[in-house]
Amino acid sequence: VSQQLKEEIRRGFAGLKDPLAALLAMLENSSVWKGKGHSLGYYITTELQLWIKEHPAVPQSGIQLKKLQARVLRILSQCPANLFDPLISIYQLHTADRNYLLENVSHLYLKGDYKEAAILSIKLRLQPDQDVEKMCIPLLLQDRANVVEDYVGEYPELQSRLLQTLDSWCEPGVNIRDVTRPYQGLSRYKPEKFNHRTLSKLVFRLLDRFHLDPALCPNVVNQRHLRTLNYLFYKRFVEKTMTEENWADHVQSTVGDRRCLQGHLVELLLRHCGGRGAARWAQHWGLPTDLLPPGLAKELPELHTQERVEEATKASHYEDSKKKDYYQLPIPRENIHFLQTWEETLQCWEKLLQPGQVVGVDMECKPSFGMVGKPRVALLQMAVKDEVFLLDLPRLLEQAEVQEEKEKLPRFIQMLYSDAAITKLGYGMSGDLSSLAATCSALKDIEKQLHGVVDLLTVDKQVDGLSPEHSHEERGVRQQEKGLSLLVQHVLGKPLDKTEQLSNWEKRPLREEQILYAASDAYCLLEIYERLCKDPESFGLSSDLRESLMGKQSIKSRAKKQLNKQEALSPSGQQCQGSQLEPPCAPAPVSPREFSVVCDNMLQGLGRYLRCLGVDVRMLDNEDNHRKAAEIARQEGRVILTSGLPYQTLQSQVGEGRCFSVNCSEKAKEQALQVLKHFNVQVSLSDIFSRCQ
Questions:
Q1: CATH of domain 337-465+483-549
Q2: pLDDT reading at 555 higher than 50
Q3: Is the model's pLDDT at 323 over the cut of 70?
Q4: Name one GO molecular function term (predicted).
């Protein structure tokens, strides 16, 4: 707002006998303050708020103030959110009679203005005198969980009461429709958004946000455990990607002594393992015999001995198969060091903190299976040429706490990540560093201190095809690889064996299979990096790969670096060498309404974000084949937005510049910035939310 307008507004206030009444008269008789954004009415109101602070004699009191408060409450029921705070301050609504305020909120509620009633209650801090269930149910049915979170945000007692109410709706035998039936005439009612699964997600989000004890919600927690059990059986017996030890470990910790879960476990065992297998596992876990079908308990000793012999034979064949089909560590076992004391870690730091050193870093966390809280790092793996160090992080942090030397380990980790002379390799480093910060509070700002890091996830998106020395036929048919395993397969010829991925990494001692898996995950990063730097052109990468990768020192700033004016970006998002290609001229500016795209099915978040900015977006469904994007692009003249390997296939099926690869490790906002910059899309305020959401 111009200084001239501000001065004019203030001169107007000074010439009024009663500025407070005049402002209300203006708001009551004009519509300029309605709608989104900063209107003229908003600027006049906020200027009056500032002016009153400079003229303390202006505010009213007594009966006159009560009359003004009554009028302003009527305005608050229909004004935009940005006027709430200034009007409440100007007319001192916090000093108004509380019962009178509650009556006004109740009036809004009875009119069906549930959101407005809740927001006014939040602003006036009326929640302790209201029925949390009554206020929140309509908002949940209207898919306004964000308002509900704000409503209980500062009141732990209300948080607990709300969560207990939500949990009671998830009790076995409760029909969710019985809860929603009184509200079926509700405007914006979205029954499809209100079911046990969405309730469960909301409960866990609230538990996490407000740091509450999950024991408050036994029904929701029990449902999550049931889903975890089903998932574990799927991984073990259908997908067959989990070892027996891992599976048994997680099943036991999930079920514990909860009888209802034990009953469900027996049903799953009978379905997947048959009667003999169910009886054996029932004995192994000490399940109550009354949960088993009659007659099986008598045969247990004989079955137990026989099936252990069979399992040992299977395990032998499995080890032979692994060596043939999967990546194998090229270093001897004695070069893998498991470190549990500070003295042991000193030898590790001496080798890591050397200028010019290249370090492969990975981390393992115990799977949470959707329970509350961020994953905590249970094992930190660091690989250098010919050696791997496995740091038992929980044990080391516990020892440091006892010895009152808490800062030692975090300081060394910070030194490693902030030293530009040491190359740190990772895969999806942002997630790992977030877990590291959740494990050790002293490392909460580590992402801001990164130098010399290379996230191979960004390279993965650009790798062209398979390793030239290995074909599909050589590898044979196997379940589709993904993530780091797929990159290892492309570059080194064989994928990682991921059967230990879902191990209980907090349990000690670690099994030998876990140690080898953890060491492989870190060491393979060194081999990938070395191979790509040696022969980048074979994988469709820039010949200056080493320099371009080392330039990316911050995970968070990758998107900004890619948008830098000095960089010429190809449609794949790869940097082009200035000596080989002239930088392309920037395309003519277009508005979002003239720009139409089709988003591949792994980029639905980007699609939603672009649509909010007014872009014409179509999105593939999860089950759609990537090729459908090319069909839509050709038929409707859309640009394809994709990521990773599908780019190579899709860009050959459409015109030049009509397919763009984004970095799927970035958040939707950063991806959108990259797309808008590349295609020179100019967004104005009127474009935002101009399309139906």
A1: 3.30.420.10
A2: no
A3: no
A4: nucleic acid binding
Give 365's strand partners.
Answer: 377
The answer to whether the Cα torsion of 80, 81, 82, 85 is positive or negative is positive
Residue with structure tokens 């009354």? 290
* HSE-up of residue 610 (Cα within 13 Å, Cβ side): 31
User: Can you give the residue ranges of every domain in the chain?
Assistant: 3-165, 220-300, 337-465+483-549, 592-679
Q: Mind listing the pLDDT tens digit for each residue in 582-637?
A: 334 567 888 998 899 999 887 888 999 999 999 999 999 877 888 888 889 888 88
* Residue 269 clears pLDDT 60, i.e. is over it: yes
User: Which residue, 149, 171, 147, 175, is CA-closest to 162?
Assistant: 149
Right CATH for 592-679 from 3.10.50, 3.30.70, 1.20.120, 3.40.50: 3.40.50
Place of tokens 């839509």: 632
Q: Say what the pTM is.
A: 0.65
Q: What is the 3-state secondary structure (H, E, C) of 509-574?
A: CCCHHHHHHHHHHHHHHHHHHHHHHHCHHHHCCCCCHHHHHHCCCCCCCHHHHHCCCCCCECCCCC
Question: Comparing 337-465+483-549 with 592-679, is the CATH topology the same?
Answer: no
Residue whose C-alpha is closest to residue 490's, from 517, 461, 519, 522: 461
Tens of pLDDT, residue by residue over 423-453, are 999 998 988 998 999 899 889 888 888 898 9
* Assigned token pair, 102: 């509650």
User: Could you tell me the strand order of the sheet in which 616-619 lies?
Assistant: 616-619, 596-599, 639-642, 659-661
